[in-house]
Amino acid sequence: MPSMQYVLVAALACAATGGLRASVPGPAAEQPPTQRLFDSQVVPLPGWSVGGGVGGRSTGLVRQVDVSVINSITTVNNTDGSAPTNTVLELLFPPGTQIQGYGYDAAFTYIGTPANPDIGFRLFNSDNASITAAIDVTSNNAMLDLAPAPVAEANWITLPDGRLGIEFFEAVDDRLVPGPSEPDGTWTSGNISILYSDDSAGCCIWDNGDFDNRGGTVSQVAPLRPPPPGLHHVTADDFYLEPNFAHMIEWMEAVFIVSNPLSAYNFDAPLGRLEIFTDCNGAPGEEIAEFPIFLPRDGFLGEITTGVPGDVWRVVAETPGLCLIGGKPYWASFVMFGDQSQGGTDVWYWGTTGSPSMVPPYDPPLFVKGALPHFQDSEGAEWERLSCSGPGACIGCSDLNFCVQGERCKIVLDASTFKAPPQPAGLVIAQYGARSVDLTSTLNQARAADDVTISPCETDPVVPCLIEAYIWTNCTPAAARLEIYETACLEDPERVQPADEPLDFDIVAGPDDAEFLGLTIDAPIGPDFRLFRFKFTEFDGFTFESGKTYWIAAAGIGSPGPNNDAYFAFAAPRCPEDECYRLGNEGFAMSDFPSSTYPDWTPTSEVPGLLEANDFAMLIAVRNGGDMFTNGAVPVCIADFDGSGQVGVADIFSFLSEWFSGCP
Length: 664
Known about the structure:
The protein is mainly beta. It folds into four domains: 1-22 and 636-664, no CATH class; 41-197, Jelly Rolls (Sandwich); 206-407; 416-623, no CATH class. The chain has two helices and 42 strands. Strands 12, 13, 16, 19, 20, 22, 25, 26, 27, 30, 34, 35, 37 and 40 form a 14-stranded antiparallel beta sheet that branches. Strands 28, 29, 31, 32, 33, 36, 38 and 39 form an eight-stranded mixed beta sheet that branches. Strands 1, 2, 3, 5, 8, 9 and 11 form a seven-stranded antiparallel beta sheet that branches. Strand 34 and strand 35 (529-536) form a beta hairpin. Helix 1 (4-17) runs antiparallel to helix 2. Residues 1-39, 45-58 and 625-638 have low confidence and may be disordered.
């Protein structure tokens, strides 16, 4: 429970500053649009006057989308993947961006006959709200240059998750050769202009800064580049994630300068890789994830003639399944490939951030968030701090630009510290976990479960976005099943325990969701037990209810056999001297194996072979549950207690009402 003094002081501070992104009803004052340098161009909107238009703005932001060699297959609203289906581009914007209109300047080639039907494109969001551009074609030429359409406002759509789809279609399906992917025509060249307003949170997880036009440092691997052994100079920069949250990273992007660029690049093939590292003493440590980097079709941002001259590109890496726990730093390395053929000459410089001044004195002054960027000049070499005395470009006291997009999920239970045996371990597995295994196609089952209580002050629905469970298993491949039970209150008032049956849904984590933690324990027979961290992120529509206690059971999955087994790992105190580390009720276990003496839910302190109260090692994070974010992204002022968008005396009374009712 926060102190009343803290909240009242926060209210006065936010009232004095106007709060953090507090929304104020009524027309907005005239202001220039938010713009990341080189992210887009700012254009006047036809027919708008200064102070006119929506929000009082007379200018908007525009991204140019390269539409070269894009096929249209059939009529509009065919994007579900069933044949025939149209080509769809997906572009990435900051979540909350408003798409406000479009323009185009492109060429098109017809394949169908006899008449040329109208063509067009449809802009749509993840909720399928859309803006449709239908282009009336009056020419019978098979190849035609479309009359350019200047950027203009249309109906607006909002991108809640930052994802914009563009569907390309024809008004009539007149394919010469019917088939699931036979095109009606092809957009042969040119671009579509997307008009948008960036009133979003920008980089809602981490923003290392905009590209400042000042220069960059090489981050590229090109093994075929002469002279042997080719080019290998990769760079990494650090970022810090907010504590008490699990951060579900969806994509990361950065801006590069390309010296001696190719005349055209392939949008559909990876042009680099993104590597994510832990931090080790202020430098990149263990690599924990790797993802392909692509050039988006709206990624070309212009040319630069100062510093390192060349073309400027935004590069993007989608990061499905990447979940990073906050409260510590990580490192990102954008590694470009460039032209991989022998003799290629394009060089990719990761752009700087901080100050557009080319020489001292810098205005604003240069600064670094966290540690200085590091580089590695050969495969497997030690990471070294980037400095003007070392190889690569001298960028001074500077960070490198990049943006991390995703969502934060509030951690409501952190029992992720597990009992770790000394290595090598020829020990009894029951000292480190309770049997919890699902041997498919047999009646031999065992479960171990522990409880989590969802605060009554959380806001329903409370949606799980991550559950991590630690399991010892000797089954191959490593897999696990998650079950959630409600609480059964028995006649014995001293005990609550899991209900007899789990809730009706099935969640499985496969080998791709399993991380081997490097610890083993000898098994009496069969392969050794190995400790895995399983990540569950798909919950089939399940939601927690605030104010209720649930029991989480995680079981290893194995094929039938006498040597296959798994154990839910015991939690451990974070500090050895902590004697009160258990959270809530002790864990329970049950087993219907033939030799079992505890076929029903039994406290771990009463399970033969355990006889000690234990919790199980897991972590649970949720969204929409009483956090301090609007739409999962934008920080709001903590003193705006009633959520009105303004800070005033009413917030004090709202807080006092909650205080005396037991929340927060």
